[in-house]
Amino acid sequence: SHATSYRAWLQYTFITSTTYREQVMSLLKEMECLNGSDISESIEQEWTFAIRKMIGFQPAVVPEVKGNGLRIVYVDSMEKEAFHIKNEDGIQILAGGEAGALYAVFTLLRHIQRQGDLHSLNMKEKPANPLRIINHWDNMDGSVERGYAGESMFYRDDSFRENIVRWKDYARLLASVGINAVSINNVNVHKVESYLITERYLKDVARVADIFRAYGIRLLLSINYASPMEVGGLTHADPLEEDVAAFWKQAFDDVYQAIPDFLGVVVKADSENRPGPFTYGRTHAEGANMLADAIAPHNGIVIWRCFVYDCHQDWRDRTTDRARAAYDHFMPLDGAFKDNVILQIKNGPMDFQVREPVSPLIGALKQTNVIVEFQLAQEYLGQQRHAVYLLPQWKEILNFDTGHEGEGTFVKDIASGKTYNPTHSGIAAVGNLGDDYNWTGHTLAQVNLYGYGRLTWDPTLNEDDILSEWSDLTFGQEEHIQQLLEAILLPSWLTYERYTSPLGIGWMINPGHHYGPNIDGYEYDAWGTYHFADRNGLGVDRTVETGTGYTSQYAEQNAKIYNDPNTCPEELLLFFHHMPYNYELTSGKTIIQHIYDTHFEGVKGVESMVANWEALEGKIDDKRFSDVLERLKHQLSHAIEWRDIINTYFYRKSGIKDIHQRKIYE
Ligand code: GCW
């Protein structure tokens, strides 16, 4: 009974329409075989397996398709990952390379599962983003940092697991939505993981790479900046010293010896107490460029994360602003990084909160390769116990106009490379997977992985269409099911926002594990995440005149809008301004009344999620039905906890009553 959950959106459910099946049988009874490479084998396997399951016959793989059948033709003039599926003298896939053909096959299978028309086929696609990455935060002891779906699927007890089938199924899931790169260890690289780039583990890493390679996915490893000392036995890790450079050169030679198409490394340096070039008085550029030079002979890349801020702040100090940090650190280095270095920037300036403005670094860096980082793991969004469909949030971010090259400088075009034409660019996301039977803990969290892939492939897809695709593929093509899932998931991000922290303020969660409400949990802590609520109001003053000046990091137009509470988008009002409780919003409500109202509404929202899910009983398999129901019920009780704690807290602070006299505990 775990199998349906495990198959996620690759169910390949038997199609009951005889007419449609007969059509597929006649048009696609054979497939012309390919050249026998790893990817070719995957293509043939995926195609024949899925057709057999959906249609009930096994298409023959033949040297030459004579009549009707599927033919794959490689076209030199097309880009490697691009394809064109058409019905002209039979169904043909034109592709720029094997990866393109693989993506085409998955696209066609999706089309067939949804009983799409096969006569007028004409699908011409190529990915918008060159790099479409999942970052795992897996540790070799088997734990996953911010993992909410069981243990690591890669490691246990400081060794690689014998998990070939699962790795392959994972690769299939990823390739089916166009992901082309994966890093398999936590960016916080501890002692044991530092040895992943050495003989001790390279054979195992290569085994994973082999499996992924057959699905067009390239491997990345996170590295420890102090490895020259911890692994190499040197006394320092100064990037400008020759012995350090030599250590890395040798390390990369070894890695490429084992994995010739290794993509590169991910580095978290001088961030949250991790080692980095600062120790030696070197800049991020000096630190990254040394690695870039060492890996360049193998055409590797260095992905350097920008999550750098003062994590030993003093809450008494109102001038230091964590939100400013990434821009302050990296903006002066624009243009100083080598061509094979890419800066990976979190979508917001803080840390994956339910609502943040877009990071001001995105768009501002014009001469530097950039990757935008999202988080599929719902660290601050209910940890995959709450159902939150993340696509609406990502769409908003990707469609944000940074204004750096005039009107219309959208985040999605910066990520895709369209705006500045960099050597490398794309999108990465922290994964939400583990070894749970359903991959993502919450079965509905599968939609975020699916949607992430689809959106990085084509950021112009909208969240509704992605959701209906996913729902058809995952739960069957029934309108009623789809409508209920839409009712549950489309508003779920806003619902989550309503019952948690208001108007862009963020945080208000329990320190450490980050689950559940704790309004003052971080208020007097060192992490720079404050709300500054007092008896008159709350919010962080980030204006130029009286605050931290953060607003000035945006292009002029945005800076102006954010700097003024009257023009600041209200959902971000408290991110940028400290405002009185009785300030009137455009809705005519005061801030305090808005807080009360949204918290009552948020709980109502979850109530209807539960009711809508209950209406699915008997329409989907019992296992998925009851597992999700259990989580939704937990979400409801937890939303009530959030509502009551937030409402009581602000009632006590402000002394202002709810005008509707609902129950607020005193
Ligand atoms: O979101 C924070 C997490 C840390 C994480 C860090 C990062 C891997 O709380 O657990 O460390 O971000 O992105 O590096």
Automatic annotation (TrEMBL):
Annotated Pfam families: Glyco_hydro_67C, Glyco_hydro_67M, Glyco_hydro_67N
Residues making up the signal peptide according to the UniProt record: none
Annotated keywords: Carbohydrate metabolism, Glycosidase, Hydrolase, Polysaccharide degradation, Xylan degradation
A GO molecular function held by the record: xylan alpha-1,2-glucuronosidase activity
Annotated ranges, domain Alpha glucuronidase N-terminal: 8-107
Keyword Protease on entry: no
Superkingdom per UniProt: Bacteria
Glycosyl hydrolase family 67 catalytic domain: residues covered: 112-439
Biological process terms in GO annotation: xylan catabolic process
InterPro entries the record matches: A-glucoronidase_C_sf, GH, Glyco_hydro_67_aGlcAse, Glyco_hydro_67_aGlcAse_N, Glyco_hydro_67_C, Glyco_hydro_67_cat, Hex-like_dom2
Active site: residue positions: 272 (proton donor), 351 (proton acceptor), 379 (proton acceptor)
Residue ranges constituting the Glycosyl hydrolase family 67 C-terminal domain according to the UniProt record: 440-662
GO cellular component labels: extracellular region
EC number, as in UniProt: 3.2.1.131
Catalysed reactions listed for this entry: Hydrolysis of (1->2)-alpha-D-(4-O-methyl)glucuronosyl links in the main chain of hardwood xylans
Family listed: Belongs to the glycosyl hydrolase 67 family.
Subunit note: Homodimer.
PANTHER family: ALPHA-GLUCURONIDASE A
Protein name listed in UniProt: Xylan alpha-1,2-glucuronidase
Organism: Paenalkalicoccus suaedae
